[in-house]
Amino acid sequence: MTQNKRDISRERNRMALIEAALDCVAELGMANTSVSEIIGRSGLSRGMIHLHFNGKAKLMEAAIAHSSDLYYEALDRLLEQAGSDASPQARIEAIVRSDLSAEVLNTRSVRIWYAFRGEAHNHEIIRLYSDTRHDRLRKLIYQPFLAIFREVGADDPAGVARDVTHGTLALMEGMWTDFLLHPDSFDRDAACRIVFRFLAALCPQHFDLPGAREDG
Amino acid sequence: MTQNKRDISRERNRMALIEAALDCVAELGMANTSVSEIIGRSGLSRGMIHLHFNGKAKLMEAAIAHSSDLYYEALDRLLEQAGSDASPQARIEAIVRSDLSAEVLNTRSVRIWYAFRGEAHNHEIIRLYSDTRHDRLRKLIYQPFLAIFREVGADDPAGVARDVTHGTLALMEGMWTDFLLHPDSFDRDAACRIVFRFLAALCPQHFDLPGAREDG
DNA sequence: GGTGTAAATGGACGACTGTCCATTTACAGT
DNA sequence: ACTGTAAATGGACAGTCGTCCATTTACACC
Question: Are A62 and A13 in contact (CB under 8 A)?
């Protein structure tokens, strides 16, 4: 068998350390995440971090990688169940709704994400994962926008799609920040509505929200 | 005289500690900002932090307060020179341009801001200053939007203005994040253009950018 | 100039940090 | 059941953390 009782135990302990580290970051922040805290939460012994990761720094790198994986998995799951053969506007809507859903955007995930990013300039790896995540989301949303602006015969569909993609990502980023600072009063529906109101104004034929454009 | 040589020296040292602390946060992040580092940068002696602030925690609180003041001052200065008797759309434009200008948004300021906010949930004071800053910006931008949507006779001008204000702030927030992660490749003009493109789509009569709306 | 008082110094202090290794434990293969 | 090997333990270790205070310095007032 490829999975010994040993290997299973090893892998389980490895993951326990990563999860404990992420819990720690979410609750206490980067500054207060110590080896002792992580060990205490995992219930394992002190030497495990050095054994599995060769030090705290490498553990944190594994933690950011895992955190990124969790984000992708949740996003993919939601997008898959939304259907991939939908219209461009439906795909964009699904992405926005997924990115702002409770499964992807919650207290734990947002705190971890901002804690890591607050230290991005000190750790190459964090920047790398941050960029990868951003690029992937950008590509996912750029294609449908490009299709839309080609369809309506825009002068420079690629340019417009690029700008609108950039703006839409910035909008979602801002909504994440809102959630970080006020998780209790945050209104997911309102956040979606505002994003769609902006998109409806930019392409009323595709996101036909009544009253999106109040002027003109 | 109200300002002794002593008082001046005292105040100068106090500020030196705050500035050193902010430099530290900007360069090393919250996690690596230690008393020793701050002292080293300020050139003062170890006991000064306890003497002036009664501990590191209080010094950091003073630092976030000072950082917030710097933001307001720079923003006010730019808005004042833009003129306050301008049209609603000109005022909004001035706010957006100021918030994305080099004076307000630079490597130091953005790193400090995100470092503090990454730990917001641990420190009541940080959340307080973050909220205050956000509220102030929101009010500054809400009024002109309200004027615009009243002027065009929107069904629910207050509601629309609220949503558009929310979205515009989120957009700017997203642009700040872009700058944090890629200060070298960040394009201020492009960032402004994208914000205005979105606003032009929402109210074409007021932000008449050619080609803002490609569809409809 | 002498004196009182506040500012400033810098080292001592215990607590805690992350690393690492000698030891123990437990599973896999024979 | 025995043995070899990898996993896991938990304490020792040097280094750094933030706090605090006895001492020195320097200014303001008389």
Answer: no
CB B141 within 8 A of CB B98: no
Strand D positions with any atom < 7 Å from protein CB? 6-12, 16-22, 27-29
Q: Which nucleotide lies closest to B48 by the C1' atom and the CA atom?
A: C8
Half-sphere exposure of B102 (CA within 13 A, CB side): 4
CB–CB contact A130 B181 (8 Å): yes
Q: Is A85 exposed, middle or buried (0-12, 13-18, 19+ CB in 10 A)?
A: exposed
Find the Å distance, CA of residue B138 to C1' of nucleotide D19. 41
In order, the DSSP letters of A28-61 are: H-STT--HHHHHHHHT--TTHHHHHHSSHHHHHH
> What secondary structure does DSSP assign to A68-119, as a single string?
HHHHHHHHHHHHHHH-SSS-HHHHHHHHHHHHTSTTTS-HHHHHHHHHHHTT
Instruction: Please give chain A's pLDDT, 216 residues, in tens.
Output: 457 888 999 999 999 999 999 999 999 999 999 999 999 999 999 999 999 999 999 999 999 999 999 999 999 999 998 876 789 999 999 999 999 999 999 999 999 999 999 999 999 999 999 999 999 999 999 999 999 999 999 999 999 999 999 999 999 999 999 999 999 999 999 999 999 999 999 998 888 755 455 554
CA B212 to chain centre: 27
Cβ atoms of residues B66 and B22 within 8 Å: yes
Among A27, A89, A121, A181, most B C-beta atoms within 10 A, so best to mutate, is A121
A119 touches strand C (CB under 7 A): no
B46 closest-nt by C1' vs CA: C10
